[in-house]
TrEMBL record:
Highest taxon of the lineage: Bacteria
InterPro entries per UniProt: DUF3397 (IPR024515)
Keywords: Membrane, Transmembrane, Transmembrane helix
Residues that span the membrane, as ranges: 12-32, 39-61, 67-87, 99-121
Keyword Ligase belongs to the record: no
Protein name: DUF3397 domain-containing protein
């Protein structure tokens, strides 16, 4: 088994339960720096990519689709466009970095909600219809 296989296995385990990287980063960074607010933001930023992959896979399995990841990316792009438009109307200019992090952190909350909804559905499908 090569290094690439180990990396894929580690990602698969972390992606199945994306709360693991969130808690790990939150605790480690908090202990290292003592700044819980920054640790929370960093934990959100890192675990968002795992939540996106997991929710896309859950969406695809639940609805027998292949559009999960594309739907998430489309929602992120639309959200970025709406936030950029609102920022331009309010300030007269657009701060791309700020919009990116706003969309990224809103995606975290949306993916958490979707994860909480889709995991019980998938578990129910697996337990009550194992075919």
């Amino acid at each position: 088994m090569g290094v690439w296989d180990y990396m894929k296995t580690i990602y698969a385990v972390i992606a199945i339960i994306p709360i693991i990287p969130f808690v790990t980063v939150l605790v480690c960074y908090s202990l290292f720096t003592g700044d819980r607010k920054k640790a929370l933001r960093l934990a959100m930023d890192i675990s968002t990519m795992f939540f996106i992959g997991t929710v896309a896979a859950l969406f695809n399995n639940t609805f027998d689709s292949k559009f999960g990841l594309y739907a998430i990316l489309l929602i992120m792009l639309i959200g970025g466009g709406l936030l950029g438009n609102a920022q331009y109307r309010k300030r007269g200019s657009v701060d791309i970095k700020r919009i990116f992090f706003m969309v990224w952190r809103l995606t975290f909350f949306l993916m958490c909600i979707c994860y909480i909804i889709l995991v019980p559905i998938e578990l129910g499908k697996f337990l009550f219809n194992p075919t």
